[in-house]
Amino acid sequence: MTGSGSLVAPISGDHGWYFLNDSEQEISIDLRVTGYFNELKDLGIFPPSEE
Is 42 helix (H, G, I), strand (E, B) or coil? Predict the structure, then answer.
């Protein structure tokens, strides 16, 4: 299964997103960003990938 989408924030400020996997299967998310931003923050919730 694949999907894609976009987010346009209606107001300025810090914004975030999350994905809830409610299945037993492991998933992989490839996040690609474009547009105007100053930084991306890793909140340290997930362990680093083993690539």
Answer: coil
Q: Are 40 and 33 in contact (CB under 8 A)?
A: yes
pLDDT in tens, 12-49: 777 777 778 888 998 887 877 777 777 777 776 766 66
15/42 Cα distance (integer angstroms): 13
Cα 23 → chain centroid: 18
Name residue 41's amino acid.
K
**Helix, strand, coil distribution of the chain in percent, nearest 5:** 0, 0, 100
